[in-house]
Amino acid sequence: MMMLDVRAVSHRYGQKQVLDGVTFSVKKGELFGILGPNGSGKTTLLKLISKELPLASGEIVMSGRLLSELSAKQWAQLAAVLPQAVETAYGYTVKETVALGRYAHQHGLFPTWTAEDETVVQEVIAAVGLADKIDEPLERLSGGERQRAYLARALAQEPQLLLLDEPTNHMDISGQVRLLDQLAQSARTRGLTVVAVFHDMSIASLYCDRVLVLKEGKTAALGAPADVMTPRLLNDVFAAPVVRQAHPVAAKPMFSFVPQQQRKKAPLIGGLHPSFLDDAVVLVAHKPLRVLSSALVGSGFQWVTHFVNRHVGLDYDNPYADEDMRRYLEQHGFSVAQTIGMMTAVDVHDVVWRWEDKEAFSVAVMVTAGVGNAVDAARAWQHQPLAAKPGTINMVIIIDGTLTEAAFVQAVMTATEAKAKALADHRVYDPETGTVATGTSTDSLAVAATQTGRTFAYAGTATELGRELGRLVYEATIEALDRYERRRGRR
Ligand SMILES: Nc1ncnc2c1ncn2[C@@H]1O[C@H](COP(=O)(O)OP(=O)(O)OP(=O)(O)O)[C@@H](O)[C@H]1O
């Protein structure tokens, strides 16, 4: 059974329609987020669910019962609410405030304070981190501490459903994390259902199982954050440019707004640098880049924001490597449609990142090199049929500038030639033919361009762009080969 069913709910203040046919359900134990710009109807929706506003249109069912059939006390036995702004009642201590939350559990005309009431109150105060302030009057707490005291009061109700309006509003980062971890744990262990309004999209993405995105009182999106919180949707709903990035440790997308000024001035490459997951090196561009790539995921011409080079073991042998890579990207919160995915057996911490800012353009190169499967392309025909093994040179090239398609292809040629020269100078040999290797059997390359600024019709070695590109690729490949050898030497 659903904990909460909201069916075709609409609401007007006078003539003003602020909610229009909103429908969603929340399962028991779910952490459900409501997102949307100011005035999109989020608080109104919570007030309708908490019976603070009368429901004029649509239906709300809580734990199988129509809201209209629940008395105030019955409602309070099922649900608790932490509103956006709570009036501080002066003179009450933390404990007295929290004790008010037990009202729904007390019986008779002269309710008595039971041992259970006392235990619950002590527990929830400890859970929100206010044990040392238990006898402090509320007006002597900070805004964040007071918010936590009110949260403890809501938790003391031992509700099945907790409604929160911007619960982390006044809290510092550690307070936010503690509160949300606590809610997530209650959801997991006690089956507590949480419906919360969030303004911070990254927090919503990190903690919510599903989100409802409201725009002008209507549902703009409903689903898992990784699925529905696309930059395009958020751009549209919030009318501001949003960047989606990978969280460094959690498999959830993070979001940041890009200040207009910064967008105009800051060159892309200056702010770009590799970041690491446990088993991958990741590059995140602030805006989609046009890419020509041979990668496992995202081959051909694409517009992407993410480049993921994932480490797999030397014995990795999967005929469906592309599907496996897609799954990996999804599990780690990347949008497959906007990501270039490569694989390597090399330790990704040996990645080499080189960049050069010229007046007319900038170029950056990211290389991981492993040459366990080194091949001389001119003599590959002498090999036994080659197995696609993951000993590989992977390269991502990023150019601040506008490239024609010819320039993309020429950039691929220039990079490939410079890489082959690096292998020759590094004396990497094809173990089967004994001749100098030109690459490995599974190398990947992605050339990406911002498609803003100066246009480059060519990127061959006769052009300034090509010359710079050739130098960077050569130097980065040599350095990556050095790192590869050093690590092998250490084994
Ligand atoms: N009591 C009221 N009387 C008239 N209009 C109201 C009332 N309360 C809210 N509104 C209007 O209804 C719209 C939705 O308000 P609501 O508070 O639900 O939005 P919200 O999404 O929670 O916004 P915020 O992010 O600013 O908290 C707004 O345009 C607001 O001005």
TrEMBL record:
<dbReference type="Pfam" id="PF01955">
    <property type="entry name" value="CbiZ"/>
</dbReference>
<keyword id="KW-1278">Translocase</keyword>
<dbReference type="InterPro" id="IPR002808">
    <property type="entry name" value="AdoCbi_amidolase"/>
</dbReference>
<keyword id="KW-0813">Transport</keyword>
<feature type="domain" description="ABC transporter">
    <location>
        <begin position="4"/>
        <end position="241"/>
    </location>
</feature>
<dbReference type="InterPro" id="IPR003593">
    <property type="entry name" value="AAA+_ATPase"/>
</dbReference>
<dbReference type="InterPro" id="IPR003439">
    <property type="entry name" value="ABC_transporter-like_ATP-bd"/>
</dbReference>
<keyword id="KW-0547">Nucleotide-binding</keyword>
<protein>
    <submittedName>
        <fullName>Adenosylcobinamide amidohydrolase</fullName>
    </submittedName>
</protein>
<keyword id="KW-0067">ATP-binding</keyword>
<dbReference type="Pfam" id="PF00005">
    <property type="entry name" value="ABC_tran"/>
</dbReference>
<dbReference type="InterPro" id="IPR027417">
    <property type="entry name" value="P-loop_NTPase"/>
</dbReference>
